[in-house]
Design goal:
Blueprint: H1 2-21, H2 25-61, H3 65-90, H4 94-126
Length: about 130
């Protein structure tokens, strides 16, 4: 049922944006951005439930909460970077979209550095 509401909101937003594009492109862009943000907020509740489920599974598996937090941070950065890049691309700013994607990749590398160093230390201790 949730997906039906998301699709309906998306379609309404697209129809309004297309209708306004010729007469007022700035408002059309704002309708697209607001539609995307509303869809993002609609998925926050199911997403928080999923994170709780994954957190419980990680605890049962004995995964360190620090590593689990890093993985969640990396996933969050990836999704937000993609969302931001798509908004920029929708606005016709492909160059800015590419920079947002690059920034997301760099931030993912920075966030995952502790996991990488721990992995390298583990490998070095085995050798």
């Amino acid at each position: 049922m949730e997906m039906g509401r998301i699709i309906a909101l998306g379609l309404v937003g697209v129809i309004f944006a297309v209708m306004l594009k010729k007469e007022n492109p700035q408002i059309s862009l704002m309708v697209s951005v607001v539609t995307g943000i509303l869809i993002f907020f609609m998925i926050c509740t199911p997403l928080s439930g999923l994170i709780g489920l994954l957190r419980d599974a990680a605890e049962k598996a004995g995964v360190s909460s620090g590593y689990f937090g890093i993985v969640l941070k990396v996933i969050g950065i990836a999704y937000l970077a993609q969302f931001g890049a798509q908004l920029c691309a929708d606005a016709g700013e492909g160059a800015v979209a590419a920079k947002v994607e690059l920034a997301g990749k760099i931030l993912i590398m920075a966030a995952s550095a502790p996991v990488l160093t721990a992995l390298l230390e583990l490998v070095m201790n085995l050798v």
